[in-house]
Design a protein that fits this description.
The structure holds two protein chains of two kinds.
Chain A (H helix, E strand, L loop, with lengths): L1 H21 L1 H16 L6 H26 L7 H18 L1 E4 L2 E3 L3 H24 L5 H20 L18 H6 L1 E2 L2 E2 H19 L1 H11 L1 H6 L4 H27 L10 H11 L11 H20 L4 H38 L1
Antiparallel strand pairs in A: 1-2, 3-4
Helix pairs in contact in A: 1-14, 2-13, 3-8, 3-9, 3-11, 3-12, 3-13, 4-5, 4-6, 4-11, 5-6, 5-11, 8-9, 9-11, 12-13
Chain B lengths: L4 E12 L2 E12 L3 E6 L5 H8 L7 E6 L2 E3 L4 H6 L2 E4 L11 H5 L6 E2 L3 E2 L1 H14 L15 H14 L4 E5 L7 H16 L3 E5 L3 H7 L2 E6 L2 E7 L5 H9 L17 E11 L5 E11 L3 E5 L6 H9 L6 E6 L2 E2 L5 H7 L1 E4 L3 H5 L6 H5 L8 E2 L2 E2 L1 H14 L16 H13 L5 E5 L7 H16 L3 E6 L2 H7 L2 E6 L2 E7 L5 H9 L13
Parallel strand pairs in B: 3-10, 3-11, 6-9, 9-10, 15-22, 15-23, 18-21, 21-22
Antiparallel strand pairs in B: 1-2, 1-4, 4-5, 7-8, 11-12, 13-14, 13-16, 16-17, 19-20, 23-24
Helix pairs in contact in B: 4-5, 14-15
The chains are: A mainly alpha, B alpha/beta.
């Protein structure tokens, strides 16, 4: 009897611990937020909230796409470059349209431009998928390759110069382009609405569609997934295409916000996206991760860096702190896995008797 | 026969959080003899061996060697006292050579820096001679057969002058020929006075090789004696309490029409030969077709050809008389085929996903309208299967890795059945699961056949294939070398057919 009561109280304690560990990113966000609300002047002002959320949104888009890729057992290093290239394509189309020769050119309205740019992002994602599934290139290498190619292409598109004054032209219907980056609906920036839409879509895919389940299965055990009748290659194509799609959105939003497109935009964005995903509990070995966790992870990173700036902490220290937070997140994640396995085993051995 | 006792456990108790794995166990290990250890999965065999090998420590109780009470804090302690263990799952590096593997972490060096490759090779060669094995020290372990890898593991223990050698299910992946070699090695070691602990699920094998037997049930030792006069009945009685759990009983039921038909299925291998060589067979609804053969006979590969894992396989297949033209696994599952793979861990389950997610992996479309999955329906279906398959689980949301082998197998079978197959392909369905779970799996197979499913099951266990099958095919070297009905099949007939090997075949029967 005595052993039974101790083991059940032990189990109860593990359960509480597990809940705390699972909510760790959220708890971290609250702590970080409360800290800056208290110590950083103007942190809670509406203006700051809007700016901060816009910053966070950019990383969150990429991180959502990255989460799917990592859950499927891969990695996408090319997203930062896709952001840069898509920004340049946006700028080029706004300024020049497409030259069809004989002095003619086709001009596009805002919607058409967005569609074409998204097509570019999706296309690079598809190339990643092709390299990884059909040519059997390791995801790290394949996307490292496209990282360089896309960045180089962005530089070539303007000889390294910036496309300035992307105000659009009312005659072509592209003057609404700036609205994407600076407009608001119901006092909330457009990019945040877009993030909500993409986030909900991704969470829905992950949770309630066969496609989502397939992504987790492929990341967890590719062989078993294949033998269970899952189309592994199709699933992989999807995650890289979706990641490219997210990156294209970021490219459009940034060039609209800045009213300019610079070919170096998006440099090292992929690392922030990976960091947000990992902070949100995504396992680098695949099969585990949540969209909600990733978005919270992106907020932790965003709030942390903006808050530190407002407190006047040097950018060198900011980098160090960001690194420490990521390491801490992974260490705690390991602890959670252990506790989780223990709780499951305890429950299992309890019914085994 | 009298053997000296090399190691004893007295009152050994090991408690894990929430469970007592070993309860006041008294165990004597005799030197120069094979000490057989048997029990269902989770009975505490592995725990006891881990204690002896220094991997785990006793919660209470003591271990003594030659009269002295000793402490084994880690594997190094155990190795210093001459205790070596060969785990069920091999701990070898496939990318390194045999010699490198044997001396891993104890490399022979000159001055502590430079590895003395020649000395390592010399000693490895000597060890291989001692074991009568023709394995080159410079071969990559990954290129060796599983049986040879097992020998390398044993050599690794011997290189550390092991006086006590623990073998945890060494034959589970071996062919009959390799088992024979292993038994010769064991006999040789015995003569040299090495005390061997031998764990296995194959009862006949235990009786054949053992000198002493210890039976465990739920952490308690239920029987311990010399092997003289021990029979399978005695072992089973001590293992599961009463002799009630028998293998599935025959339920007579009529067969339906031909449900599956394969014609000249062949699969090439990298060496230019054929792994599956012109296999043709026919299966009727409600029939259990046993495919007997040794490891590497091409049985598993044939099933994989059927399910569509090998796109290069040739030959024609028909389901219900309709040709099977689909190439992909998912399309073939759609046509009514389902495979229960041999390697549960790597091919059958996604370990980190939950029990529920694993079970429904092949049949998600059933719960989906358009894009949207009906999670409630999924949960209900899983609950139904958990009940009908008697899977013992605390919650379907736990990771499937928390289950025992038998319960994991039931999850894999549930996954296959959820697709409503017409033909069930089962590859070694009883591998690595305990007797209780085995009997339940067999009962399920019988019931499915009675419901009109066609079952092809592959096994290397004679007793299993004889008691379960309506018809038995024997495969050897990629070909079908024997065709028996339930009445004509005999132990010797099957074994002889399975040994037909490299010579050109003249008794290869063409099956319509």
């Amino acid at each position: 009897m005595a052993t039974q009561t101790t083991s059940s109280s032990l189990a109860a304690r593990s359960n509480v611990l597990l809940v705390l560990l699972k909510a760790r990113t959220f708890i971290a966000l609250i702590i970080v937020f409360a800290y800056f609300a208290f110590f950083a002047p103007n942190f809670l002002s509406t203006a700051n909230m809007v700016i901060m959320s816009k910053h966070v949104a950019l990383n969150a888009f990429l991180a959502i796409g990255m989460t799917f890729v990592i859950v499927s057992g891969g990695i996408d290093l090319s997203v930062g470059s896709i952001v840069g290239l898509c920004g340049m394509v946006t700028g080029y189309l706004l300024l020049n349209g497409i030259d069809v020769g004989l002095g003619w050119s086709i001009q596009f309205n805002t919607f058409e431009i967005c569609l074409l740019v998204i097509l570019v992002g999706v296309g690079i994602g598809a190339i990643n998928g092709f390299l990884i599934t059909k040519l059997n290139v390791a995801p790290f290498i394949a996307t490292l390759g496209t990282l360089y190619v896309a960045r180089g292409a962005a530089m070539l598109s303007s000889d390294g110069r910036t496309f300035p004054n992307l105000n659009g032209n009312p005659e072509y219907g592209s003057h609404t382009f700036r609205w994407i980056g600076s407009g608001e609906i119901l006092w909330v920036p457009v990019s945040i609405w877009m993030l909500i839409a993409v986030g909900l879509l991704a969470a829905y895919i992950a949770k309630r569609t066969p496609l989502g389940r397939h992504i987790y299965a492929v990341g967890g055990n590719e062989r078993a997934a294949g033998l269970s009748g899952i189309k592994v290659n199709r699933t992989k194509y999807f995650v890289y295409i979706f990641s490219g799609f997210c990156a294209a959105l970021v490219g459009i939003i940034i060039s609209s916000q800045l009213v300019a497109a610079h070919p170096a935009t998006g440099n090292t964005f992929e690392l922030n996206a990976i960091a947000a995903a990992v902070l949100g509990g995504t396992s680098m070995s695949g099969g585990r991760g949540k969209i909600g966790g990733t978005i919270i992870g992106a907020f932790v990173i965003g709030v942390l860096s903006d808050g530190l700036v407002m407190m006047g902490v040097s950018s060198f220290w900011q980098t160090v702190i960001k690194g420490l937070v990521i390491i801490a997140a992974v260490v705690i994640d390991q602890a959670q896995q252990k506790v989780q396995a223990r709780v499951a085993l305890q429950a299992q051995s309890a019914i085994g008797k | 026969m009298s053997h000296s006792i090399g190691l004893s456990i007295r009152n050994g108790t090991k408690v894990y959080p929430g469970t007592v794995a070993l309860d006041k166990a008294d165990f004597d290990l005799y030197m120069g003899a094979v000490n057989v250890l048997v029990g269902e999965n989770g009975a505490g065999k592995s725990t006891m061996m881990k204690v002896i090998a220094g991997v785990e420590q006793l919660t209470s109780g003591e271990i003594s060697m030659e009269g002295d009470i000793i402490q084994l804090r880690n594997t190094d302690d155990a190795a210093k006292r001459g205790i070596g263990i060969v785990f069920q799952e091999l701990n070898l590096f496939p990318n390194m050579t045999v010699a490198e593997n044997i001396f891993i972490a104890r490399e022979k060096t000159r001055g502590g820096i430079d590895i003395d490759t020649e000395a390592q090779e010399r000693e490895t060669r000597a060890l291989m001679e001692q074991l009568e094995q023709d394995i080159d020290p410079n071969d990559l372990v990954g290129d060796l057969r599983v049986g040879q890898q097992q020998i390398v593991e044993i050599a690794k223990s011997l290189a550390q002058n092991a006086r006590i050698l623990i073998l945890d299910e060494p034959t589970s992946a071996l062919s009959a020929a390799e088992v024979e070699i292993l038994f010769r090695v064991i006999a040789d070691l015995k003569r040299k006075g090495v005390g061997i602990v031998y764990i296995s699920h194959r009862l006949e094998e235990l009786i054949q090789i053992g000198d002493y037997i210890t039976v465990l049930r739920d952490g308690v030792i239920t029987g311990s004696r010399s092997m003289d006069g021990v029979d399978v009945d005695w072992i089973v009685r001590n293992m599961i309490g009463d002799s009630g759990k028998d293998f599935a009983k025959e339920i007579e039921h009529p067969f339906g029409g031909e449900i599956f038909h394969a014609e000249n299925v062949s699969l090439g291998n990298s060496a230019g030969g054929l792994t599956v060589d012109n296999v043709s067979l026919s299966l009727r609804a409600g029939e259990i077709l046993g495919v007997y053969g040794l490891m590497g006979a091409g049985r598993s590969e044939f099933l994989e050809c059927v399910i569509g894992r090998h796109p290069h396989a040739t030959g024609n297949m028909f389901i219900d008389g309709e040709p099977l033209v689909e190439k992909s696994v998912s399309a073939r599952i759609g046509r009514g085929l389902a495979l229960i793979p041999e390697d549960r861990k790597n091919d059958g389950l996604v370990q980190i996903l939950s029990i529920r997610e694993n079970m429904t992996l092949s049949s998600l479309h059933k719960f989906t309208r358009g894009f949207d999955m009906n999670l409630r329906l999924e949960k209900e279906t899983v609950a139904d299967f958990v009940k009908s398959m008697t899977v013992k689980i605390a919650s379907p949301e736990h990771a499937v890795s928390s289950l025992s082998g038998g319960n994991q197998q039931k999850v894999v079978i549930s996954k296959a059945l959820m697709t409503n197959p017409k033909v069930l392909l089962m590859d070694e369905p009883s591998r690595g699961i305990d007797i209780g779970a085995k009997a339940e799996v067999f009962r399920v197979m019988r019931k499915l056949a009675a419901d009109g499913l066609g079952i092809i099951f592959v096994t290397s266990d004679l007793e299993e294939v004889l008691s379960l099958s309506d018809r038995i095919l024997v495969m050897s070297n990629g070909r079908i070398t024997g065709d028996f009905t339930h009445d004509t099949a005999t132990n010797t007939g099957l074994v002889e057919a399975s040994a037909i090997g490299h010579t050109p075949l003249n008794n290869n029967k063409e099956l319509a």
